[in-house]
Write a structure and sequence with these properties.
Blueprint: H1 4-12, E1 20-23, E2 42-45, E3 49-52, E4 75-81, H2 84-92, E5 98-102, E6 105-107, E7 112-113, H3 128-134, E8 138-141, E9 153-154, E10 169-171, E11 175-180, E12 183-189, H4 195-200, E13 206-207
Parallel strand pairs: 1-2, 1-5, 5-8, 6-9, 8-10, 12-13
Antiparallel strand pairs: 2-3, 3-4, 6-7, 10-11, 11-12
Length: about 220
C-alpha cells in the first residue's frame, strides 16, 4: 500500500498542463512536490498565494511564506500574494480547474466530511465549504481506513458534511476510484494490494469490473 507521499505522487498524474489547482491541508499539500517538470501548473492557496512551489529544504524556510495549513512553502517565478477576498473570488468564480482535498469520510454518492469530529474543538469549516461548493473537479486524498481499521468510504457519512455529492475521484493508500452513479468504481489498485483487500476495506458500494490494473507511480 502507499504512504502519504505515494498518494500525492499518484494524484500529481491527474494535474494537467495549464491547470490552476487548489491544494487542501494535509496530504494534498504534498502534490506540488511531484508534478511533472514539463508542464506549467499554478497552485493556489486560499490564504492568498498563487504560484506555490515544492516545500522548502530544511534551513531554507521563510516563516512569512506559508500555505493555508500554516506550513512554510516556496514560490515560483511570477508568484503573487493577495488578500482573502481576492482568493475566494477566484474560488467562488470557478477559476480553479482542480481542487484536491483531504477527508475523514466520503460517501458513495460523493458527499464529503472533512472538517469536524464531534467532541473535538475546531475553529470552523474554513475554506473547504467554498471549495466543495464551487469546484467542478474534486479529487480526495485520504487513507482508506481509520486508525481502528474501519472504512472511511461509506454508504453515508456519519460526520458533519462539508459538501454534498461533489467528490469525483478518490486516491487512497489502497486504490484509485471514481465516484459516480451512487457507487465507488475501482480504477487502480496500489502496488501489492489485491482487489479482495480493497473490497474488504470499503463499507460503501464498490464496483470492480474486469481486470483492475496496478497503479503506475
Amino acid at each position: 500500500m502507499l504512504d502519504k507521499n505515494g498518494i500525492a505522487k499518484r494524484i500529481a498524474k491527474e494535474v494537467q498542463d495549464g491547470y490552476y489547482v487548489n491544494l487542501g491541508i494535509g496530504i494534498p499539500t504534498l502534490v506540488a512536490n511531484f508534478v511533472r517538470d514539463d508542464i506549467e501548473v499554478e497552485f493556489q492557496s486560499e490564504n492568498g498565494v498563487l504560484g506555490m512551489g515544492p516545500f522548502p529544504f530544511e534551513g531554507e524556510e521563510d516563516a512569512d511564506i506559508i500555505n493555508a495549513g500554516k506550513q512554510t512553502i516556496t514560490t515560483l517565478a511570477g508568484a503573487s500574494f493577495f488578500d482573502s477576498a481576492t482568493s475566494f473570488s477566484m474560488i467562488r468564480g470557478q477559476h480553479v480547474d482542480l481542487t484536491i482535498l483531504g477527508a475523514m469520510e466520503v460517501a458513495e454518492n460523493g458527499d464529503i466530511a472533512n472538517w469536524k469530529i464531534p467532541g473535538k474543538m475546531v475553529k470552523g469549516m474554513g475554506g473547504a465549504m467554498d471549495l466543495v461548493a464551487s469546484a467542478e473537479n474534486i479529487i480526495v486524498a485520504m487513507m482508506h481506513t481509520n486508525k481502528r481499521g474501519e472504512s472511511k468510504l461509506l454508504t453515508a457519512c456519519s460526520l458533519p458534511l462539508t459538501g454534498v455529492g461533489c467528490v469525483k475521484k478518490i486516491v487512497t493508500n489502497l486504490a484509485v476510484m471514481d465516484v459516480k452513479d451512487g457507487a465507488f468504481h475501482l480504477l487502480e489498485r496500489a502496488p501489492g494490494v489485491t482487489v479482495e483487500e480493497i473490497v474488504a476495506a470499503t463499507a460503501g458500494t464498490l464496483i470492480a469490473e474486469g481486470e483492475i490494473p496496478e497503479m503506475k507511480l
